[in-house]
Amino acid sequence: MFANLSIPMNATAQGVDQFVSKVMTGAIAALLKRTEKLDVRVRAEPVAKLFHGSIDGFDFIGQGLLMHSGLQVDRMEFYLQALSIDFGALLRGQVQLRQSTQSSMRVVLTEEDLTAAFNASFLTEKLQQLSYGGQPLLFEKTRISINEDQFLRMQSWVYFGQVEQMLEIDITARLDFKGRRKLQFVEVTYGGDQRAIELGQMLTRHVNNLMDLDQFSFDGMKRRVDLLRLKDQQLTPYGVAYMEKFPQQHG
Hints:
2 domains, elongated, disordered N terminus, single chain, 5 helices, 22% helix, seven-stranded antiparallel β-sheet, alpha+beta, DUF2993 domain-containing protein
């Protein structure tokens, strides 16, 4: 993943935490296409226990993140209370877990982030699996907004059949998580004429089957949501991340 790293044989224990933080920051940055800020903090007492791969706490705070899938995130936080890693792998610039672990999680998505997600290819390609009257559908210019009553509104232009045939759908819904991992549109209302309503209902069913967090997590990681807040034009899920192995860069 990275060039081999080394620490001087006479390095003090106090310098080891900086070395570990540096390697873990690089490993996380490699998973992302772009970052505005990454803050990784490793805690161990005494610090010398890091030589054995034992970490008391690990905090990760990222801002302005862009995934390789095209998903952008305003803020992502993970807080681990204990972690066991292979120190020898760190010297090779790699992070390898000795055992599975879990962390508390907080993610902040703005209206801009959500709008970008529904216009990114990894989602639009899945939405194109829908058809209406035997004709394939093309969703474009999707806009996501969060109302003051904590409902989410989704507006999108839908093209079908000949390109000149298009219709705007307008969906307002409360968000929920089924089984702590599947994002659901519930208490849904639709705008427009009967055809727009039918397309909106079809899109709602498809999105409810599509938005599984496990499909959008890093390899080796599963996320579960315990609380979901919509406030100040932001969607903020709180929950737990289960990590069986440290994610690796692909491609």
